[in-house]
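All the exercises in this workshop are built on plain-text protein records. A record pairs a protein's sequence with a compact description of its fold. The structure tokens are whole numbers drawn from a learned vocabulary of backbone shapes. Once this layout is familiar, the rest of the handout is easier to follow. An example says more than a description, so a record of this kind follows.
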Amino acid sequence: MGLKLMCVVAHPDDECFGFGGALGLAADRGIETYVVCLTDGQAATNRGDAASGEALGRVRREEFAASCKVLGVARHEVLDYQDAQMEFVEFSRGAERLVERMREFRPDVVITFGGDGGQNAHADHTMTSALTTAAFHWSGHAKRYPKVGVPFQVKRLYYLTESFFMPGRQAPMPMPWTVTLDIQTVRERKTEAFRQHASQAPLMEQTKELFERYGAEELYALVATAEPQGARMGTDLFEGLPA
């Protein structure tokens, strides 16, 4: 059947800004990828020419689709949660929706944000991490959400983490990484995916120097596995998994 990677993010542009290297590398290896974005980003500071939140949401959905195409993402989806309000969602229902998608897609590896909320310590990112983590553990439990598919246990869960902080932002408390991904071969593709988010062009300009300095790699922390094992450093999210 081949390996599969599922990525869960909070906003359009998270998929490339944070996870674009992992997604691009996976696509190049023939690994099927699926990105679930929980909101359409209507609360963004950068709004382009959008005259309303609804209009911005439509624009950002289109930008997300274009970015995923550049990254070779096989399947992508934007859910209907409200941007900047994720901390108030009904937790069990949110986890159930992700469990349903994990059971249907049957990924080997899931990647998402850490509990720190990422570079900008965003509450939506923290909630995305919490919901995805619960879904990872509950997807394989027969007693959890028996009406939404056959139980399936994902093999590994990784959090995106970082080795630097963004100037002018409250510093997060990132998890120490266990995987360093060399993304040099897809670095330009990651940048090109970000360019698809034209409404967020000011953010791209603000972070240009950071990407030039640190953009050759992405860092991930292995936080849960289907098999007990000691912590070790690696360079591949799929190391040792049968294709």
